[in-house]
Design a protein that fits this description.
Protein name: Mitochondrial dicarboxylate transporter
Distance between the termini: 24 Å
Organism: Coemansia nantahalensis
Number of helices: 7
Order of helices and strands: HHHHHHH
Number of strands: 0
Radius of gyration: 19 Å
Length: 204
């Protein structure tokens, strides 16, 4: 959730680019948002982004670590490839299901100002959006886009968590101390890998 506070403007611009008709440049999109609603417009939908991270990311981390711990068993051996795959699939599915309602709200709130005035939903915050969405569209609205969301979450979890674990293990085995730079290097690389792998599902 802390990370979302820093990256939200970038995520908002990404959503605008993904939902725009035709090719649009990043700086042009940023200027357009600021011109329309001011600099704070870059934080439209932040409450939904925080809820998304608090549900989606929490579920992924928890299920991944619990599944890895269960698969390790009593012998303390390293996990095999299929066991890591099982942990990532389970955690991705859990994150996708639990986080999907907030994902829908997040995208809607980020993209609302780009719509014509008569099509805007004008959610005041994530709770208002959740109540409005259920009351006007039914509970089924919470599952909009669930299929691509599950695929994205599974791809993101598999590529992010496994690449982080593997790179950190390699760095430690190479003699680097278990320190902040090692964790940063592993995290940075895992983020790049995950973003690249799940981008197509994210666009969908």
């Amino acid at each position: 959730m802390a990370a979302a506070c820093f990256t939200h403007p970038i995520d908002l611009v990404k959503v605008r680019l993904q939902t725009a008709s035709g090719r649009t440049r990043v700086l042009h999109t940023v200027r357009q948002i600021v011109r329309e609603v001011g600099i704070l417009g870059l934080y439209n939908g932040l409450s939904a982004a925080l809820l998304r991270q608090g549900t989606y990311t929490m579920a992924r981390f928890a299920v991944y670590d619990l599944t890895k711990a269960a698969l390790h068993g009593a012998d303390g051996r390293s996990l095999r490839g299929r066991e890591l795959a099982a942990a990532t699939v389970l955690s991705g599915v859990a994150g996708g299901i639990i986080g999907n309602p907030a994902e829908v709200l997040n995208v809607r709130m980020q993209n609302d100002q780009a719509l014509p005035a008569h099509l805007r939903r004008n959610y005041r915050n994530v709770l208002h959006g959740l109540v409005t969405m259920i009351s006007t569209e039914g509970a089924g609205a919470l599952t909009i886009g669930l299929g691509p969301s599950l695929i994205r979450a599974t791809l993101a979890t598999g590529s992010q968590f496994v690449s982080y674990d593997l790179l950190k293990a390699r760095l430690l085995a190479a003699g680097f101390p278990d320190s902040v730079p090692v964790h940063f290097a592993a995290s940075f690389t895992a983020g790049l890998v995950a973003t690249t792998v799940c981008s197509p599902a994210d666009v969908v």
